[in-house]
Amino acid sequence: MNLSKTLKESLISVLEQSRLALWIEIVTEQPRCTYYFGPFAFAKSAQKAVSGYIEDLKQESAQVIAVTFKRVQPRELTIEEDEVNYPGRQAGTETGA
Prior knowledge:
Layout: H1 3-17, E1 22-28, E2 33-40, H2 43-59, E3 64-71, E4 78-80
Antiparallel strand pairs: 1-2, 1-3, 2-4
InterPro entries: DUF1816
Pfam family, one: DUF1816
Protein name: DUF1816 domain-containing protein
């Protein structure tokens, strides 16, 4: 393992522990899911990677409706329909994320 990769992994670890790591959140309609990809230390790295994640989801016939970059620590990397807060969803049917 080279020094650059070790430093990057250490930085990401510190950012994750302090909940400052950047994650890509992709919400899909078909299937109704929220996916988290990351963590990333820098927005530029996340922006470079996002098109690949979208393409992978589309190849699986997923219909992407929203992409957001967030500094969070997701509890799960894939959250299915009954666990997600979707825009336009009826009140009382969402549990929050």
